[in-house]
C-alpha cells in the first residue's frame, strides 16, 4: 500500500496537482523572492503544509473508516479554509513589505495546510481508498505522508524556481508589478469564493 500511495501522489503531481499548485504559488513566489532557491523553498513549505494535512487525514481515514469523508468535507472546515485564503488574498494585494519576514515563511505553509485540509476529488478518492484498506492508523498516516510526498515531486518545484527570475525582469516596471499582484490575489480570491460557496453557509 505504501508504494502505491507514493506512486498515486506522483502521478497526480505530474498532472492536475502541478497545474493547481503552480497557479497558486507562482505569483506568490515571484513577488516574495529574488532567487531560485527562495522559490523552491516556498514550494517545499507549501508541500510540507499539504503533506502534514494529508498525513493526519490518512490516519483518520484508517481509524474512522468512511466517517472521515464527512470530517474533511464538513462545512465549517471548508468555511474556515475559505476565510484563510481570502485573508491571504487581501494581504497579497495590499502587501507593502512591512510583514515580509513573517509571510515569506508563513503564507506558503498556511496555503499548503489549507490545500490539504480541503482535498480535491482525486485526493478524496485516495483517502477513501485508505479507509477501505484498513490496518493501523500509523499505516494510514504513512500512506497519507507518502501520497503528499508524491504530489510534491512534480514540475511545481521547477516552476517556482523559475518564477523569481521572471520577477527580476519585471521589477523595474511598476505596472507589471501591479498586474502580477492583482493576478496572484485574484487566484486566491477565486479559490476562496469556491471554498465559501462549497461551505453552503
UniProtKB/TrEMBL annotation:
Keywords: Membrane, Transmembrane, Transmembrane helix. InterPro entries: UreH-like_TM_dom. Residues 11-189 form the Urease accessory protein UreH-like transmembrane domain. The chain crosses the membrane at residues 6-30, 42-69, 75-97, 109-132, 138-166, 178-199. This is Urease accessory protein UreH-like transmembrane domain-containing protein.
Amino acid at each position: 500500500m505504501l508504494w502505491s500511495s507514493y506512486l498515486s501522489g506522483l502521478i497526480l503531481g505530474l498532472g492536475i496537482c502541478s497545474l493547481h499548485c503552480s497557479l497558486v504559488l507562482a505569483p506568490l513566489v515571484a513577488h516574495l523572492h529574488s532567487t531560485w532557491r527562495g522559490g523552491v523553498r516556498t514550494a517545499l513549505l507549501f508541500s510540507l503544509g499539504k503533506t502534514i494535512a494529508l498525513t493526519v487525514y490518512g490516519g483518520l481515514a484508517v481509524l474512522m473508516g468512511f466517517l472521515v469523508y464527512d470530517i474533511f468535507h464538513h462545512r465549517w472546515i471548508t468555511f474556515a479554509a475559505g476565510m484563510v485564503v481570502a485573508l491571504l488574498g487581501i494581504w497579497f494585494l495590499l502587501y507593502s513589505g512591512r510583514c515580509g519576514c513573517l509571510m515569506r515563511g508563513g503564507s506558503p505553509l498556511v496555503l499548503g495546510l489549507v490545500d490539504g485540509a480541503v482535498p480535491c476529488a482525486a485526493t478524496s478518492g485516495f483517502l477513501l481508498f485508505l479507509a477501505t484498506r484498513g490496518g493501523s492508523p500509523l499505516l494510514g498516516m504513512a500512506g497519507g505522508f507518502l501520497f503528499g510526498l508524491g504530489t510534491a515531486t512534480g514540475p511545481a518545484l521547477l516552476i517556482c524556481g523559475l518564477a523569481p527570475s521572471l520577477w527580476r525582469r519585471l521589477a523595474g516596471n511598476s505596472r507589471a508589478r501591479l498586474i502580477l499582484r492583482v493576478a496572484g490575489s485574484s487566484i486566491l480570491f477565486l479559490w476562496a469564493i469556491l471554498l465559501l460557496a462549497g461551505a453552503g453557509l
